[in-house]
Specification:
By secondary structure, the chain is of the alpha/beta class. The chain contains 10 helices and 15 strands.
């Protein structure tokens, strides 16, 4: 069965998520979207477009179906799947104060959901005029930025070039993985519905070419990159990360890594989402290829030395 791709739309209050959502619906007229909204008041649904209502699921004349996230996400997803209404892409728009990692966790770590849905990317709409102020003051805004796979810097024509460059530099410091684009009214020229940010090969490539060690002193957000030539012990590493995320998960926004585990013929891709984590098998190590592990941590107040010592303790004993 072909999985349904999922795109999460996030951004702080007033960034323009509703405009972006409407733009996507217009940009892809042949797609049948399912849209999960926290509140329908946020997108101003036109009642004249509603042709059918079934247990809180609105079917619209443009082929889209919508429902409110008025209970647990997993229940809402089951409700959509069991509604027998056809759709080929799921859009989840978070509220301005929502942390997207909690939503993404369901798609990355829940086996039942993974059978039906495939998380494609988290798109963060950034208000070019007010974003830096939000990062400095709001934890939720920082988490949205550090979890994003792609930034749309909105209202760019209303913003001075120097301010745009300052914002882009700050975004790169806070999240070395995400690409970015300047836009107005959310009108992106990029096919953001097919970014495939969680594709194993794409994750592997980004981590392998990441050389970031940054620290933003105002927000306290740091990105630390580590490389190891010696193999890791799988069980030791798995146990350590579970404890780490359980105890420090609030301050660890994201972990991505490619690992060489002892006695494993393939490279393993590790990703954390909130307090959960997931392993995926990557390509097999080729004969003669240097087997190297590389991992990037993004979080608040990350101290390099303690993390490095902990990782070294997870190396396989010779």
């Amino acid at each position: 069965m072909q999985k349904i791709p999922v795109t999460i739309l996030t951004g702080f209050l007033g960034a323009g998520k509703t405009t972006l959502l409407n733009h996507l619906i217009e940009q892809y007229p042949d797609k049948k979207f399912a849209i999960i909204e926290n509140e329908f008041g946020d997108i101003g649904i036109d009642q004249e477009l509603v042709v059918d209502v079934d247990e809180g699921i609105f079917e619209m004349s443009n082929g889209c179906i919508c429902c409110t996230l008025n209970h647990e996400l997993v229940d809402t997803l089951h409700k959509l799947v069991n509604s027998e209404k056809k759709f080929d892409h799921l859009l989840v728009e978070t509220t301005g104060m929502a942390e997207p990692d909690g939503i993404a966790a369901a798609f990355v770590t829940d086996p039942a959901i993974q059978q039906v849905f495939q998380l494609n990317a988290t798109i963060c709409l950034v208000d070019a005029q007010h974003a830096i102020e939000s990062f400095d003051e709001q934890e939720e805004a920082r988490r949205q930025v550090t979890f994003a796979d792609y930034f749309l810097i909105n209202k760019q024509s209303e913003t001075e070039e120097a301010a745009l460059q300052q914002l882009e530099a700050k975004l790169r410091e806070m999240n070395p993985f995400a690409e970015m684009e300047r836009v107005d009214f959310g009108q992106t020229q990029t096919d953001i519905l097919h970014l495939q940010a969680y594709d194993i090969e794409k994750v592997s490539h980004k981590v392998a070419h990441s050389h970031h060690e940054t620290h933003d002193h105002l927000t306290g957000v740091a990105a630390q990159s580590f490389t190891f030539d010696a193999p890791f012990d799988f069980l030791t590493f798995m146990h350590w990360t579970k404890v780490l995320l359980m105890v420090q998960g609030k301050n660890i926004y994201r972990i991505k890594g490619i690992f060489h585990f002892k006695d494993h013929p393939e490279r393993m891709i590790f990703q954390s989402v909130k307090t959960s984590s997931a392993f995926q098998k990557g390509a097999a190590w080729e004969e003669g290829e240097k087997r190297q592990s590389k991992v990037v941590f993004i979080g608040k107040g990350l101290k390099r030395k303690p993390v490095e010592r902990a990782l070294q303790s997870c190396l396989a004993k010779t």
